[in-house]
Design brief:
Blueprint: H1 2-25, H2 27-30, H3 32-41, H4 43-52, E1 55-57, E2 60-62, H5 64-83, H6 86-110, H7 126-157, H8 165-192, H9 196-223, H10 236-243, H11 246-255, H12 267-281, E3 286-293, H13 296-303, H14 305-322, E4 328-333, E5 336-342, H15 346-363, E6 365-366, E7 369-370, E8 373-379, H16 387-403, E9 409-410
Parallel strand pairs: 8-9
Antiparallel strand pairs: 1-2, 3-5, 3-8, 4-5, 6-7
Helix pairs in contact: 1-5, 4-5, 4-7, 5-6, 5-7, 5-9, 6-7, 6-10, 7-8, 7-10, 8-9, 13-14, 14-15
Length: about 400
């Protein structure tokens, strides 16, 4: 009987891999949603079988839900990454996680109902739904980490096994399935009292599933002439950021505290980052430029606010081109801007401020006439060690530049 069960297992794995690869291959005509939905729909039966359905094989007692279906799903997620990209593969991962959180939340609400027995001897087993919900939640939490690890490991192995995609699938799959078996067995043992034989039998089955799926996927990629050898040598950190939506977070962070008109950082970010920059500078110099557009009110009065907005956008673009990548530019208010330059001593900062002034007068125009700026300059430590002191000194010098005829830099 164990041998018959083994043959059934192989048949189930073959049906699974053939069907899922077929759906993925047809994604251009059927849509990727068909593949993703099939992946998600099977999650319940995977968890159910892994919790209660076990059969005996020559090497132990195992569940097809874990050894066949879950192992296959993890390898399909890796295949989806290979065929598409990290931004695509993260969608089913997060979808499964969100769906199972919702299952647990709804089961807690369902328990509050007073149910009615419609069919004799049949009643809702809410305790079972609870158990399945928590197991599915634990399973998809593991799947979240499994998916990230298997993709990063696959990419890392590409450095050494660039031409051997089957080996990369095999090593990645076997490694992560071992990690998953440890995690899922812990939950089964805690909730259902599963014996150690379940762990060892399940692990052996997954170690057989990994080469089976790796060979099937390798055969498919070669047969479909997929350009898997054309690996983009992206840093693993970039792949991780894509998988975890971190690039979205960093984009949001970069946009928060940003002036919507010019793209410069806003005054709130200046007050936050200015203090932080001076704190981190220790004994290194920090210079501050307070930049004001000369006669800007007349630009708005004569040519309208749209032209004034255009001038400010061009101004920021020009100033940024003259600053270093480590410098920070803030819109302090109206037509006033602040540039913070870490590691730039007064002499070098004065020369750079002159570069900014000259560049603005040459590149920024209004009605064919050059736009000019006045700049007040201050630097640690002679002008102070706090951001307020630097700003105050720069402000005094800015007005000295205005009184002196504008279009000039005034420092100490």
């Amino acid at each position: 009987m164990p041998n018959a069960n083994l043959m059934l297992f192989l048949g189930e794995a073959l049906v699974y891999v053939a069907a899922m690869i077929g759906l993925l291959h047809l994604r251009t005509s059927l849509g990727l949603g068909v593949f993703v939905a099939a992946l998600g729909v099977m999650h319940f039966i995977e968890t159910y079988l892994a919790a209660v359905f076990y059969v005996e094989l020559p090497f132990g007692v195992i569940s097809p839900g874990s050894a066949v279906l879950f192992s296959g799903k993890l390898m399909m997620i890796l295949l989806l990454y290979v065929k598409e990209d990290a931004a695509t593969v993260r969608q089913p991962i997060y979808g499964l996680l969100a769906g199972n959180f919702l299952t647990v939340a709804l089961s807690l609400l369902l328990r509050q109902h007073d149910t009615v027995a419609i069919i004799p001897s049949r009643s809702a087993d809410i305790a079972f739904i609870d158990e399945m919900g928590w197991l599915m939640l634990w399973g998809t939490t593991l799947l979240y980490f499994d998916s990230i690890i298997i993709i990063l490991l696959y990419e890392k192995l590409g450095r050494w096994f660039r031409r051997f995609v089957t080996i990369r699938f095999l090593i990645s799959g076997a490694t992560v399935l071992t990690f998953d078996q440890l995690g899922f067995y812990t939950a089964l043992h805690f909730m259902n009292g599963a014996p150690a034989d379940v762990f060892w039998g399940g692990w052996m089955a997954k170690m057989l599933a990994a080469p089976f799926y790796a060979l099937a996927i390798g055969f498919y990629l070669n047969a479909s002439r997929h350009a898997f050898l054309a690996i983009a040598d992206r840093p693993l950190g970039d792949v991780f950021n894509d998988l975890t939506f971190r690039e979205r977070y960093e984009d949001l962070l970069s946009r928060s505290g940003q002036d919507t008109l010019t793209g410069a950082l806003d005054r709130g970010r200046f007050e936050l980052e200015g203090r932080q920059m001076l704190h981190e500078a220790a004994n290194a110099p920090v210079s501050l430029m307070l930049i004001d557009v000369d006669h800007f009110k007349s630009v708005n009065d004569r040519f309208g606010h749209m032209e004034g907005d255009r001038v400010l956008k061009k101004l920021v673009e020009t100033i940024r081109a003259e600053l270093r990548p480590t410098d920070r530019l803030f819109r302090y208010g109206g037509e006033e801007f602040v540039a913070l330059c870490p590691g730039l001593a007064y002499g070098d900062a004065h020369a750079r401020a002159e570069d900014v002034r000259i560049a603005v007068s040459r590149r920024v125009t209004c009605n064919g006439q050059p736009v000019t700026v006045s700049i007040g300059l201050s630097s640690t430590r002679a002008d102070g060690t706090g951001i307020g002191e630097l700003l105050s000194q720069a402000d005094i010098r800015l007005y000295a530049a205005k009184r002196g005829g504008r279009d000039r830099v005034v420092g100490r």
